[in-house]
Design a protein that fits this description.
Oligomer: homodimer
EC number (chains A, B): 4.1.2.-
Family (chains A, B): Belongs to the XFP family.
Largest sheet of chain A: 6 strands, parallel
Organism (chains A, B): Inquilinus ginsengisoli
Distance between the termini of chain A: 87 Å
InterPro entries (chains A, B): Phosphoketolase, THDP-binding, Transketo_C/PFOR_II, Xul5P/Fru6P_PKetolase, Xul5P/Fru6P_PKetolase_C, Xul5P/Fru6P_PKetolase_CS, Xul5P/Fru6P_PKetolase_N, Xul5P/Fru6P_PKetolase_ThDP_BS
Pfam families (chains A, B): XFP, XFP_C, XFP_N
Strand content of chain A: 5-15%
Amino acid sequence: MPQHSQATDQDLRLLDAYWRAANYLSVGQIYLLDNPLLEQPLTIQHVKPRLLGHWGTTPGLNFIYAHLNRVIARDDLDMIFICGPGHGGPGVVANTYLEGTYSEIYPEIARDRDGIRRLFRQFSFPGGIPSHAAPETPGSIHEGGELGYAVAHAYGAAFDNPDLIVACVVGDGEAETGPLAASWHSNKFLSPRIDGAVLPILHLNGYKIANPTILGRMTDEELLRLFEGYGYEPHFVEGSDPALMHKAMASTLDIVIDRIQEIRRASREDGAASRPRWPMIILRSPKGWTGPKEVDGLKTEGFWRSHQVPLSGLAQNPAHLALLETWMRSYRPQELFDESGQLIPELQALAPKGTLRMGANPHANGGLLRQELVLPDYRDFALDVPHPGGSNGEATRAMGELLRDVIRLNADARNFRLMGPDETASNRLDAVFEVTERVWMEDILPEDVHLAAEGRVMEVLSEHLCQGWLEGYLLTGRHGLFSCYEAFIHIVDSMVNQHAKWLKVSRDLPWRQPISSLNYLLTSHVWRQDHNGFSHQDPGFIDHMVNKKADIVRIYLPPDANTLLVVTDHCLRTYDRINVIVAGKQPAPQWLDIDQAMAHCAAGIGRWDWASTEGDEEPEVVMACAGDVPTLEAVAAVELLLAHLPRLRIRFVNVVDLMTLQSKTEHPHGIEDDHFAALFTRDKPVIFAFHGYPQLIHRLTYKRPNHDNFHVHGYREEGTTTTPFDMVVLNELDRFHLAIAAIDRLPQLGAAGDRARRLLQGRLAEHRDYIRQHGADIPDVADWSWPSRGTAASFD
Amino acid sequence: MPQHSQATDQDLRLLDAYWRAANYLSVGQIYLLDNPLLEQPLTIQHVKPRLLGHWGTTPGLNFIYAHLNRVIARDDLDMIFICGPGHGGPGVVANTYLEGTYSEIYPEIARDRDGIRRLFRQFSFPGGIPSHAAPETPGSIHEGGELGYAVAHAYGAAFDNPDLIVACVVGDGEAETGPLAASWHSNKFLSPRIDGAVLPILHLNGYKIANPTILGRMTDEELLRLFEGYGYEPHFVEGSDPALMHKAMASTLDIVIDRIQEIRRASREDGAASRPRWPMIILRSPKGWTGPKEVDGLKTEGFWRSHQVPLSGLAQNPAHLALLETWMRSYRPQELFDESGQLIPELQALAPKGTLRMGANPHANGGLLRQELVLPDYRDFALDVPHPGGSNGEATRAMGELLRDVIRLNADARNFRLMGPDETASNRLDAVFEVTERVWMEDILPEDVHLAAEGRVMEVLSEHLCQGWLEGYLLTGRHGLFSCYEAFIHIVDSMVNQHAKWLKVSRDLPWRQPISSLNYLLTSHVWRQDHNGFSHQDPGFIDHMVNKKADIVRIYLPPDANTLLVVTDHCLRTYDRINVIVAGKQPAPQWLDIDQAMAHCAAGIGRWDWASTEGDEEPEVVMACAGDVPTLEAVAAVELLLAHLPRLRIRFVNVVDLMTLQSKTEHPHGIEDDHFAALFTRDKPVIFAFHGYPQLIHRLTYKRPNHDNFHVHGYREEGTTTTPFDMVVLNELDRFHLAIAAIDRLPQLGAAGDRARRLLQGRLAEHRDYIRQHGADIPDVADWSWPSRGTAASFD
């Protein structure tokens, strides 16, 4: 039962005028340098020298935006707009300009003739704005450039925002991508009671760059089935006649908004529990709608030729210039803007007011709404470590307890979610299930465990969805963490690129408020793929991340549980960053008590005195390490070295914050060169046991003093389903290889070194044989623990 | 009208016995070290010390495999099996063992008691085999470890294999991934006339590691709609009672095989042109089917608790050990294997014979079927380059002509395809459309261009699909190339990881024949994103690739059209590699004629005399470059330097084959250190203009002589929609910055250097101003061309 007025013919006429204004401003952005209101006949001097931009999707976006304005203004809806079609920049910019937000944020783009001229000029112009909806675009949380993430972002924005409607336009090109195809299933994870609504608008204009699209050519019957299968209630709006289309779109929007309100009522008032069939709109409209029908005798409107700039080569082709003028004048700008270049009051009145304008909705500038997380005292979860190696523990289990209390303390704020591809429990974060559940809107069976329609944990076997949801959640001002198998985080390499780019640009926009960092826990890492083997081994995500801008990226390799607690606490407090934490889940020796952990993490890198034997002299060799398994092997290597070469002066250095290794000039966390030399010496061999690909350490340290003496052991792309120790042996990261590597660089050891090397090689061979025969590690390696030695001095 | 016999009750009883044998062998692989036929009571000594493997999906896979055997043997079907569920290793291994292929390939795993003992022992055991269907598994072209690519691989295998049926099992976990969700649309690209059939079997066992699955909990009604929407004809087989399920599966398989043959007939005999509705099977069976119903009072069969090893801690828990024995004996092994451990003849008779066995089908060891491509003479497409810089050309356009002739010359063999996300024409490879079309099974409208049901070009806006199709195509013995926007190739980072791992393992298996290389053309690269800006800029894929095993990866950065022709020709001749070619599509100066290009590419790296001014003395500075835009800027920088410092001795070095830079010990293409020093000197500054992230050059050369003097300019993650020259300026890769960088390292230039620096800085500022004001590059940069100088000597 609609509680609102339907659109009258007069409403629709005004809407059409508003749409024409948006289309006019869109074409103007692509083409014009000057003569913004076409007060003079158009000449080539008014046209940009380089025509960059995309017309094809824009009129459809403008159509949608104008119609959404109508229902927002009428019903005071809290709505944001996600523009999936990457090339829709001119449309979103035009609309936020028309509604006034653009000029509020960028006063130099005023609501007058000169403002329009600047608006046109800046588009895809050096020093101006990009051609996509981007961080620079008011109301955007989504850079559509890459395609594939619109729906995931939309759901991320809707979670825990019960009053919000996220209108999400998906282009039919984007709809071909994998991430988008999976995203439709996000409706299985959205609670109509505590979450907002996503209104997908599948905008089929039928063409990509030079091809029809899959969904664009499917029949309505197949589309209907597909989206009903996905769990939606599709409503079609199809055609090309503007008058008919306005009517159809207005009445369809009335229906779907009603339907959303009904679903909310049913859930929130009547307690309906089952997953509702959310409405969606399938809008078929011509590509390049209202643009030139034909150019040079070739079909253009309603075809892929209108994808980019339908008319080009204007300087050489006066007919094209004339066609452009005819096209632009077809919107009748003089009816839309007054002499000063202001949108006429009748049209201004159509836009929603204040923060109801989609360009001004604070959800789309999430930092405005962001509340700090309430964090527990991480010391409460500290493992007791009476002395280094004096206890065993599972690092991620301790982190799980911390996260449990984060969830508990912020339960009322509903602003923290934990994402993961079905691995929260297997990654030993399961303490969180003491206070929350996994979100699940499908049927729940009696035997099911920790499933509920509402919860803080989101598990789906799609890293794309985890990433996309979390990005949407963070961009609208909330907090979260994504826990993932280390190897498979590469699945989102390209997504994280886009997020890093978004953050880089946003940081330079004073009006964009900081958002919470994107936090990763990468666990079930390369060294402990006992069950899964080679296909699950890849520590290269951190290599990928260090290509990003230094202000954005932090990489932590805590060696044990207490350092992981400190690092997690830190990451949850940061903003506008991407924090990557790599930590194992398996039982392992613990090295630092919580105070030591705090001090070590604060420094990011440091000497561990208890594992060093240099005394007051300079060491002969530095044993360095980063990562939990490498740290264990490095400590064990020190013990082996001392067993055979008791007077060797070893320094032990552990790195938690990987970026400390890079030069200060390259990364803000980089330590000074003097500090680096004080740690790693100026001329002694450094044996570096590294979690990832060895080259990364070389890459980070190539400018550093003593770099030529760095010998890095790490993952060499060798592995299979085998024992944990065999894995490190296969990659020469084990204690024996590390100890031998040290001896190899210490010719001054002479015969004693040769003897030690032979003994170590013999023991390595024994271990290998034992593993092959028994399928398990020899007990003295498997159960190895660092003897309590008190202080470094006791080594000698 | 079925033309074949249906399964009798006796057939089904035997099928059940065969299934029990496969299940028995699967459980044995997970658990047993010894006592393989349970001839003695089971003791803990017979059990593996570490239990690694996954039971949950296995019985369903065994069920499917056994039923496929029946129809293959009956109808002499040419069929391969793709095992999407990663954790199905034990099942595929068990089945290929039962059918005999396993022992033929691995004679030590004989068809007797000791063979079974070894079969059990090797599974997930050090030195043994991995837990997934993997390269080691006969009949596999698919490592299911990561999940998401099964259907794309299946379609890739089916293209141009008209008699093949690719049975493709998709787990319901995998079905949640994005790439898989998009892959269902592959049916829009498969011609029933010239391509084989894909028979998807969506295997819903309902659970992932610790959660229900989305598709597993959907109703049949929603599933039906979803897959009808995707264009399939779903057939459901659902239940848990083996006898009923055998009956249902057998009759359903009869129907779907008939349906496939009907579709083929309709297309090939009756000329039906429209896209058919291919059949698929939706099989709902319990997870861990036939395993323990409950363990420790908790539901196990039909629940996620049977995902991995349902019974564990056997040494401490005799009840679990007893349960294991009961479970294994429930398959009645003594009825299945004779005393020597041979499968009884009645069951052996069920398997297809020879190469009809899915483990022995040559399509699954594609190198066996691979024919060399017939390649044109690339010189035919060479650009005329009268002198360096003496002509302009679009590199990829020349490559397109070469590819056109590759397609033409191999048209009858139908063994080459070109994949890309809708960019073949925009990447200027459109010469191929002179001889072929884009594949498109949907309706074709009068205005459509170069679409046809059959063609060599496959365009879909999903890099995942392009990659997955091409992998499947190559793995079954064909050839191809994937052309992609450089930035968005990161979308498949994780897929290419898996392919690189596959190649690494396959190379060490003598029975796996080499397959054609996976060739990438990365174009529309970082420096020429004039339309798209920052979101489309990322040259980091090559960083990702250099982490792979050196034998696998080659990276080429041809500086112009003729070098691109040589490199392309070379890549198309290689096998078992991943070749990455980065080349631009925009008009640019050409440097080398085809003979010079051939010589330069053969060396991979070399001095360009015509751009060098060292004469007989050692140079004062080396200007090095890799990539087309960097080469242009480096050449222009030399010209600027000489204009201001005419006596400067410059050496110009260009790198085509990036891996020449790495040490010989690290990569087979690495040049010797002496050669490196002869090129880059031992102590002179090297200004290196690089296409990608500068760190990659440091990483490749950190062990090289003179590395400390390398100053690399490359992409610094700065960009937006702007002019091409502004892009290089933003990243300090432009000619002015390069020239200034050289001067900065040449203090001996004194006042002359200072003067030159000031002049260059002034010109840089001029250019910046011009760009900001005019939105275009200043003409002397935009139209810059290298003056014909004849020889290096003429510089002085």
